[in-house]
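seq as requested:
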Amino acid sequence: MPLKKGDPAPDVTLPSSTGGQVSLASLWKEQPLVVLFFPLAFTSTCTKELCTVGDDLGAYTSLGGQVVAVSVDSPFVLDRFRKETGAGYAFLSDFNRKASEGFRVLRDGAIGPGLLGASDRAAFVVGRDGRVAYAWHDTNPGLLPPFDEIKAALEALKAAA
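struct tokens:
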């Protein structure tokens, strides 16, 4: 079962698509963090999700949040995917599945013919205290996260600050 509201978020360090390592805790200590898990780069629903967020990135930042996209793809694949989508936010590689395991969104079954080890589609908002302020998860890789709910969670954190 994935993490839920109120749970402590795991501090994992992941390779960035642009090089280097990024600690999730270092990000959420600065400002609330939206963590978007997506199954695989270059798939239609994942592309739509990350482009939708990128097109509306100003809404997330105006609510005091920052966004990272996380998948089990390599940082090299994610770099190309980030460039292709034009996303202005970080893409992080969970190649070793530490974040997917920590947030408990590692997929039980195959995502396609024989493709095991991807994460489910999930969205979390982590407050500056390191606790999950919002959690959404679905095993259907064709569903998009509820973007309005994510923004509402950021708005609630901003109002409480």
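The helical segments are 24-28, 44-55, 57-62, 75-85, 98-102, 147-160.
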